[in-house]
Fold this sequence. Notes:
Layout: H1 8-17, E1 19-23, E2 28-30, E3 38-49, E4 68-69, E5 84-96, H2 97-106, H3 108-128, E6 133-136, H4 142-153, E7 159-161, H5 166-175, E8 183-186, E9 190-192, H6 197-204, E10 214-221, H7 225-236, E11 241-244, H8 271-284, E12 288-290, E13 295-300, E14 306-310, E15 315-323, E16 327-328, E17 345-346, H9 351-354, E18 361-365, H10 369-378, E19 384-389, H11 400-408, E20 412-416, E21 419-426, E22 428-436, E23 439-444, E24 447-450, E25 455-456, E26 492-494, H12 506-525
Parallel strand pairs: 6-7, 10-11, 10-15, 11-12, 15-26, 17-24, 18-19, 18-24, 19-20
Antiparallel strand pairs: 1-5, 2-5, 3-4, 3-5, 6-8, 8-9, 13-14, 14-15, 16-25, 21-22, 22-23
Helix pairs in contact: 2-3, 7-8, 7-12, 10-11
Amino acid sequence: MQRVPLAADHVEALRAAGSVVHYAAGTMIAGPGDPVDRFHYVLDGEVEVVNPFTDQRYVASTIGPTQFMGEISFLDGGSWSLPLRAVRDTQVIEVPRPEMLRLMANIPEMSDIVITVLAARRRRQLDTGDGSLVLIGEEAEPKIRQIAQFASRNRIPYTSYGQGTPEALSVATSCAISADIPAVIFGKDNVLTNPTPDSVAQLLGLNRTLVDDEHFDVVIVGGGPAGVAAGVYAGAEGLRALVVEDMAVGGQAGTSSRIENYMGFPTGISGADLVWRGEVQAMKFGTRFAIPRRVERLDKLEGGDFCATFDNGQRVRARAIVVATGVQYRRLPIEGLSQFEGNGVYYAATENEARFCRGAHSFVIGGGNSAGQAAMFLSRAASHVSLLVRGDTLAASMSDYLSSRLEADPAISIEYGSRVVAVHGEGKMDAITVRDAQGERRLPACALFVMVGAAPNTGWLSELVSLDGCGFVKTGDAAGATSPYATSCPGIYAVGDVRAGSVKRVASSVGEGSVVISHVWNHVRA
């Protein structure tokens, strides 16, 4: 990326909104976990990124005059992932985050430069693993693997070391812990030996501090393509919006290794990358995100507002609700399946899961596009991939271009009329039993990917809206509503895969999430 410096009038705007601050040589300007609550523009001096475990310079390059400090987490008030230190006496303009966001909204040219740089920095961190989040023992401990999946899907840079390795020993020594104990470490001072996605999110600043009964114009439940698109347009229209997601922005689409039929990306794009771009856009317009948070109950209040209760007991209020919870892959009635979930059995096929398939035989259950793309992606790492399809053809469930590729790939075999009836292993799954017309076979397997069926996430709606026989939300004429996305309850809208009769495609979900905000705006204004 060619660096574009801020223009002279941009710098003057920063001076007017902020203040000049001096840092003596050796001063720590920011540390891991500190809130990114200020924008720093360097007038004079030099700033370096510091390795949080050795206190040495982390990367060769430094930040100097006309450059600015910052991470993408600045947009939504997250935390610094790496410490920064003044190499020599340094003078900066510091602008409080609210003022800087106001400037970016009013000066789009400056906003474009800042966001491009911050996004490029995060992409570099993801490519190189630069960050203060270190996982020890991912290969042996399911809880650590869960954190790796959480970080990967939320595009949080992290480094993973095996237990007892020299790298793990070095980090553990700096934190005064044993290298033989699985742990999640964020900088020197934060060590979690019993980590959860929620506790890690707290360290990283992903869990936003919400005031109890805080009021929003619209709460968007679900952070998949439909929910994030709604967040983008809600923010752009000036609505006070909150997107709530229980695991990772991207939803089921975020588990797709490659989407090739989305307009504008002729070489394809991963679902996680596509939705992450949308998340950055939404944050740019002021939309807030709460991750990982699940809405467990929705109540309608007197006067027409709604109260959403989270899994931690916290509540928020809203004038309108957009249901964008999508669907989830069904958990099949396979003997032993639950025992190996996250430890051989997976519901996503990303780089994180592909690491466990190198040089071994992997199996994918499913006949849709997601299963097909997973098989194509995994074939780069696994010695062979078997796609297990219950029916006798892919024509009705998979795009023709994709099924043709699968049939032509020597590293992939399609087994029709097949189903998995059991999984086996001691500690980790190492074999499966497949049943077909010839009987049952026990086959060695390093991983099993389940990508079949679609169960709507609608249990939290507390019977406020009408559902069809499969649990999908009725909208439009079917719900007695005038808007195509309105439900039987005024003020509640449904978009994307969770909506009955919707086209189950990413592009369709993005379109619905974008269009529904015009109806939300009319409801809020009324």
